[in-house]
Amino acid sequence: MRLDVLTIFPEVFEDYLATSITGRAIRAGRLRVGVHDLRDYTRDRHRVTDDYPFGGGAGMVMKPEPIFRAVDKLRRKSSRVILMSPQGPKLEQAWFAAKAKSRHLIVICGHYRGVDQRVIDALVDEEVSLGDYVLSGGELPALVLVDGLARLQPGAVSDADSLAGDSFSDGLLDYPHFTRPRAFKGKRVPAVLLSGNHQRIRDWRDEMRQKTTALKRPDLLKDE
Ligand code: 9D3
Among the atoms of ligand 1, which is closest to the Cα of residue 130? Predict the structure, then answer.
C-alpha cells in the first residue's frame, strides 16, 4: 500500500513514521509513505498556501491551486483522496480494516479554517475526522490514520493473534494484562494466570473482557 500525505508541516511526520510499527512496516516494504510539502506546489515567490476567505471572517483558507497540482501529480487510477476534516465521520476500526486493502491513498491535511470548498467538491472522495473536538490542523489526525493502517499491513504486527484480539475488532475491550513481578506493592497477579490451565485462562479473559466493557464502555454492548 502507498500513502501520500499533503501538508504544510512535513517535518512533523518524520520521527513518528520512523518509529515502532509504522517504521517497521515501511522498512519491511509493506507500506510506502510519501510526505509532500504543499509549499513545493506553489508558484509564487513567497510560496503562499493560504489566503483570506471571500466574504470575510476570521482565519485563513488553504488555497486550491497547490492542492490541485499535488493531487494531479500523485494521483493514479487506484487512488482514493481523503481529507482530514472535523466535518467527516469519525475514524473507526472498521474503516481501517476496509481501507487497509487499498492500493493508494492521498491524504490531505487542512489547516486554519480548512481548505477551499472546490478542493472538497472536485478532488476529495471522503472526509474523515478523529472526533468532535477542535485541533489546529489535520497533521495529527493523518498520523493516526497512517498508524492505524500500518499495523494492519501483512507482517507489520508480528503475532497474528494480537490483531485478531484487537479491542474493537470484535466490539469488546481487552482483558487485563500482567507481567513480572508476581507481587508488586502488595498486589498479586491473579492466580488463574499462573495456573498453567489454558482453558481456565481463556475463560477468565473472556469474562474480564465482558465485565470491563460493561463497566467502561457500555455503549459498545448495545446493539446497532
Ligand atoms: C470554526 C469551525 N471550525 C470547525 C470545527 C473550523 C476548523 C477548526 C479546526 C476547521 C479546521 C480545523 C483544523 N482541524 C482539522 O483539520 C481536523 C480535525 C479536528 O480539528 N478535529 C478532529 N478531527 C480532525 S481531522 C482534521
Answer: 23
Cβ-contact 119, 67 below 8 angstroms: yes
pLDDT in tens, 61-106: 999 999 999 999 999 999 999 999 999 999 999 999 999 999 999 9
In a domain, 198, yes or no: yes
The dihedral built from the CA positions of residue 121, 127, 131 and 135, taken in this order, carries a sign that is negative
- The region that residue 32 occupies, defined by phi over 0 for left and psi between -120 and 50 for alpha, beta otherwise, is beta
| Residue 193 belongs to domain spanning | 165-221
d(CA 20, CA 150): 10
118 and 49 in a single domain? The answer is yes
CA distances from 21 to 18, 28, 109, 122 (A): 9, 10, 22, 34
Ligand 1 atom, smallest distance to 136 CA: 13
With a threshold of 0.85, does the pTM exceed it? yes
- Rounded to the nearest angstrom, the distance between the alpha carbon of 114 and the centre of ligand 1 is 7
- For ligand 1, atom 3, the nearest C-alpha belongs to 113
